[in-house]
UniProtKB/TrEMBL annotation:
Domain of life: Eukaryota
Residue ranges of domain TAP-C in the record: 558-613
InterPro entries: Leu-rich_rpt (IPR001611), LRR_dom_sf (IPR032675), NTF2-like_dom_sf (IPR032710), NTF2_dom (IPR002075), Nuclear_transport_factor_2_euk (IPR018222), Nucleotide-bd_a/b_plait_sf (IPR012677), NXF1/2/3/5-like_LRR (IPR057125), NXF_fam (IPR030217)
Entry GO CC: cytoplasm; nucleoplasm
A GO BP annotation: poly(A)+ mRNA export from nucleus
Name used for this protein in its record: Nuclear RNA export factor 1
Protein localization: Nucleus, Nucleoplasm
Length: 613
């Protein structure tokens, strides 16, 4: 094994020793200036004096050719001429400089920690304190840290001069670092956990105070140097809290130089109600997305962070920041000293929305008869050519509006029919920003509503089989209900597009009956599946109507068939309506004719009754 007193090994001079180079170049090489470094008396019986002498010799150039006479010469002149006080203090400060140095020992993982450290301590001239020893998983090197320059220089001088028995010479590299490694090794974790439980956790209030840990001298004495700006250290702290302090209700992480909250996404404290990140280095409000899972959190502190300063990176005011955080964490009731009002939000960020079971639509029993009659009568009149008979359905002070939606980006296949000039009448607030135009497109009064429906709205043919009715409200002597369904445009100058509509009516009883006081239509193009279903339904209905007509004609005897033909010729109605009129009057020709004349004079017979095509 190598003897550290044999300075002839490896050429004597240690190339990693900056102090020896400094003294050689500054004092010994300039005009033969003397070396003013203080020397102690070399007393062979004094062990401490001997160790200091050895250490001092390693600090100098360690030239093996230096004989005893030259050493006596340096000692003699040192005793005769002592350095001035400022120069001596400067050298002492340089030698005793504090900080952190990383010491890396190659192949220590193969040799073993205990063997490496025991050999290193046995061959060093004085004791030193290593911190945070660990094995680098990639290089298998052993790494630890020392916190003063004397220890660092001693490690540098030991490079290549210490041999582990029957193995290899230790290759040691030393470098200056700002702080030790952030993560804690297996030896330090139990000490840190015990410290938190005994010194930082209040068992009565379940409060965990982790504020300003970096300045805690008790932790430093344990060899733990908190660095919350490092992900590894935060990960270790979060893991300890989850395993050993899951009952925590209040957590204070203030004044810890925390720069982001990414690792706190793994903080699982089901009872946490208060959390403080005050006086840290948080710059982005998006960090708070990592706290969404803390469902019981109601109070958070964010003051004295860069994001709360007037000149923050995003130029957001404190009100804007609080509003954004509240949107991300809607369970919050208080931020710093500000009480929050309940936020209005949509559950768009929830992956699964659980709703109570309900029917697809609801119609009260006392409304069923009314709605059945209303829908049958209204859409029979609405699908006529001139729609003039709708006059009896609207209140004098009614209102009407139209909204056309654009679904170009829909994931459902949609037949993209154009709306023509009707798109100009849409009050879609998403696309219209002119308030005056919005007001002008809102029709007021029966005359304005009917003029729009008669002259601007396309002719339609509704599919009754597609209707779905939902009653919204029946309070305050009003009935508000919505009808969803499909219709086909039957204008001659169009390609008969099929539209999907949602129409909301507000009706009220009057002396003239139940009238419409508000009518709102929302239109969109029908999906391909809806068009196919409507086409199949229309084909089936036509076949059924034809079969019913054939059955009806078959069941009518010859005498009645002659009566139907005669009634159709004299009234001008088609066969279907003529049969219907005669059946309702028990095949009494005169009575049926009287009823027809009365209804015709009141303009209450639909125009379809006279369509014989």
């Amino acid at each position: 094994m190598f003897n550290r007193n044999d300075f002839s090994h490896n050429g004597g001079k240690h190339y990693t020793d900056p102090i020896s180079y400094r003294y050689n170049s500054k004092y010994n090489q300039r005009g033969g200036r003397k070396n003013y470094r203080p020397e102690s008396n070399r007393n062979g019986d004094d062990v401490d004096t001997l160790m200091v002498s050895i250490n001092r010799h390693l600090t100098t150039d360690g030239n093996p050719s230096q004989n005893l006479s030259s050493r006596r010469y340096v000692t003699k002149h040192t005793q005769d001429r002592r350095p001035t006080r400022p120069t001596y203090q400067l050298k002492k400060a340089q030698i005793n400089q504090t900080g952190w140095w990383r010491v890396t020992i190659q192949q220590a993982g193969t040799i073993g920690k205990e063997r490496v450290m025991s050999t290193l301590k046995a061959h060093c001239p004085r004791q030193f304190q290593p911190y945070h020893y660990f094995i680098d998983p990639h290089t298998k090197a052993g790494v630890f840290f020392v916190n003063n320059q004397q220890d660092a220089d001693m490690m540098k001088r030991a490079n290549g001069k210490i041999e582990v028995q029957n193995l290899d010479i230790l290759r040691i590299m030393v470098g200056r670092v700002s702080a030790p490694i952030a993560s804690m090794d297996e030896d330090l974790r139990p000490h840190f956990k015990d410290y938190l439980l005994s010194r930082r956790f209040n068992k009565q209030t379940f409060q965990l105070d982790l504020s300003n840990l970096a300045d805690d001298e008790d932790l430093s004495s344990l060899g733990i140097f908190p660095q919350f700006n490092k992900h590894g250290f935060i990960r270790d702290v979060v893991d300890i809290i989850n395993k050993d302090l899951p009952m925590t209700r209040q957590l204070d992480l203030g004044s810890n130089n925390i720069m982001n909250l990414y690792e706190f996404r793994n903080l699982h404290l089901n009872n946490l109600v208060q959390l403080s990140f005050a006086s840290n280095q948080l710059k982005h409000v998006d960090n708070f997305d990592n706290l969404k899972h803390l469902s019981q959190l109601v109070h958070i502190f964010i003051k004295n962070n860069p994001l709360t300063l007037p000149n923050n990176k995003c130029n957001n005011s404190i009100d804007d920041i609080i509003s954004i955080i509240q949107q991300k964490l809607p369970q919050l009731k208080r931020i710093d000293d500000i009480d929050l009002t309940p936020a209005i939000r949509f559950a768009t960020d929830i992956e699964t929305i659980k709703l109570p079971k309900s029917l697809p639509h609801y119609v009260p029993n006392d409304m069923q008869t009314f709605l059945q009659n209303f829908i049958e009568k209204f859409y029979r009149l609405f699908d006529t050519h001139d729609r003039s008979e709708l006059h009896a359905c609207y209140h004098d002070l009614c209102m009407f509006s139209l909204c056309i939606t654009k679904l170009e980006d829909s994931h459902v296949p949609i037949r993209q029919y154009k709306y023509g000039t009707l798109i100009l009448e849409s009050r879609n607030l998403q696309f219209g920003t002119d308030n005056n135009k919005r007001i002008s497109l809102l029709r007021h009064g029966k005359t304005a509503v009917l003029d729009f429906l008669r002259f601007k709205y396309p002719l339609t043919k509704h599919d009754g089989n597609s209707f779905h009715v939902d009653v919204i409200s029946t309070t305050n002597n009003r009935a508000v209900f919505t009808i969803n369904g499909l219709y086909k445009e039957v204008d001659q100058n169009t390609n008969n597009p099929i539209r999907c509509f949602q129409r909301t009516f507000t009706c009220a009883p009057t002396t003239a009956g139940i009238l419409i006081i508000a009518d709102h239509i929302m239109l969109s193009n029908a999906a391909d599946a809806q068009i196919e279903k409507m086409t199949h339904s229309s084909t089936t209905s036509s076949s059924q109507d034809l079969n019913n007509q054939n059955n009806l004609n078959t069941n009518i005897d010859i005498q009645n068939q002659e009566m139907v033909q005669k009634f159709s010729r004299q009234s001008g109605m088609n066969i279907e309506y003529s049969i219907l009129c005669l059946q309702q009057n028990n095949w009494n020709y005169d009575k049926a004719a009287e009823v027809f004349l009365d209804l015709h004079s009141k303009n209450m017979i639909p125009t379809d009754a006279f369509n014989k095509s």
